What we know:
two-stranded antiparallel sheet, CBFA_NFYB_domain, Histone, subunit A, transcription regulation, single chain, Transcription factor CBF/NF-Y/archaeal histone domain-containing protein, transcription, extended, disordered N terminus
Amino acid sequence: MVDNISYSNRETILHHQQYNNNNPPPQSSNTQHHDYNNNNYNSYNYNNNHQLYQQNRLISSNDQEHEDHQSLGLIKEQDRLLPIANVGRIMKQILPPNAKISKEAKETMQECVSEFISFVTGEASDKCHKEKRKTVNGDDICWALGSLGFDDYSEPLKRYLHRHREFEGERVATQSKERQ
Length: 180
């Protein structure tokens, strides 16, 4: 599946490079891409791939080598998705001990949470970019959650982040006293 996405993104990016940056891509163009691993064809929406291209361009704008790899669609699956073992472990925490989770369910959840994280961090990254900052911090993530309509998650996360920072401050103070 990642090979399909990588191939699709690579072709989309190369196609987009034929336009100059002021011309938008076609509004609705479904194109077929060949999956060389499975010998079948898949359709992808050009607009979704263009959005991926734009996100990749923003994220890697300061690192030319990284940008070259991403412009060719060479994002490894493990770099794009959360580890499936971690996703499965989190899913099991909410289920009864004897419950089974199919591989397909884990993979679906893996894709969903990875996309969600990318969506939120992309919004936070845009904010940092506008403010001419290079580092995304916890406050930016909380802001992004709120601005994207996830207020029910934003406020508790802000409180947790505040408590975490207090705890870290106390821990550092305790360690420095012990060293003296």
